[in-house]
Amino acid sequence: MNILNAVYGDSTGGRWGATLKTARLLAEEGHSVTLLIDPVDLPNVPADFVGPGLDVVTLRNSGHYDLIASWKASRLLRARRIDAVIAHSGRAIHMLKRAAPPTVPVIAFNHSHNIKRTLKADAFFCITPYMQQIVEAATGGAKPSFVISNAVSIPPEEALADPTGGVFSIGAIGRMVPNKGFRHLLDALALLAADGVAFRAQIAGDGEERAALQKRADELGLADRVGFLGWLDPADKPAFFNSLDVMCFTSEWETQGIVILESFAWNKALIGTAIDGPSSCYADGETALVVPPADPPALAAALRRLHDDRALRQRLARNGRQAAIKHYSNEVVAQLLDRCVCQLVSDACAGRLR
């Protein structure tokens, strides 16, 4: 099957990574996938992306109402004999919905709870059950929707290791922006230090709040306990995860959070916040300890509990890894993508969509 996988907008964040992974997973299932992007985003395509079943095409698109871009896209669809379109942004959906014939379904892959600009699509892939609820409420259930999570690579057992430093090690990863809750993590760590707990924390990522967070760590007397690592290269992630006892997901709002799935895959105990979307990935006391968002005392208590109970850490980590293998692995998500795309193409050809 020939699939067009398109995105317009930010080519550095989680949506961009998910777009690239969608293309790769479908290619591994035997499809021919064309990545359609704006020319300005071409330098952000990895050097090893193009290969068997994978190609890249650029097309300038000035906005949601760019009729010339839609005309050019329609020619591309015919030339490449595209059977299905997966669009990861509102601008891509508007352009390709005008371009595609009725027999070619335009599928919105929703990575945000702000779905207004995606509602023209014929069908929807939603990364969490909560997102599916939002879509179905907006469409009245009139269009098909499927829950298809972000996918994660599962490292082999021999790649896993326990931390060797002897000091309780805490980790977090994310863009340093207000909703990620890193300031609450620092406040929780200060409470932990005041309680006499020995620990070392590492926060990976970057963003507009990094300088303020580093200043806050200094003010709390945590400069010698908390390291700010910047963004990690993929090659550095194994060492990072293997150095940790616990991972913290502290967002106040989020769509899913790939760090949750990575923590599971790397066999790490997780503390997560009780927020719509991500909390569908974990269960309190089974695959994570769940705390309210923006609640440093509750987060500190959960950290202290995991510090004191190694058996609980091991149980949460083991259960999380099994959840990653069963629900979020590349192989599982690729097969689900394949089934859903094939079903939608069949429905479109039979006139059951639109």
Automatic annotation (TrEMBL):
One of its GO terms (molecular function) is glycosyltransferase activity. Gene3D superfamilies: Glycogen Phosphorylase B (3.40.50.2000). Keywords: Glycosyltransferase, Transferase. Residues 21-152 form the Glycosyltransferase subfamily 4-like N-terminal domain. It comes from the Bacteria. InterPro entries: Glyco_trans_1, Glyco_trans_4-like_N. This is Glycosyltransferase. The keyword ATP-binding does not apply. PANTHER family: D-INOSITOL 3-PHOSPHATE GLYCOSYLTRANSFERASE, GLYCOSYLTRANSFERASE. Residues 170-322 form the Glycosyl transferase family domain. Transmembrane segments: none annotated.
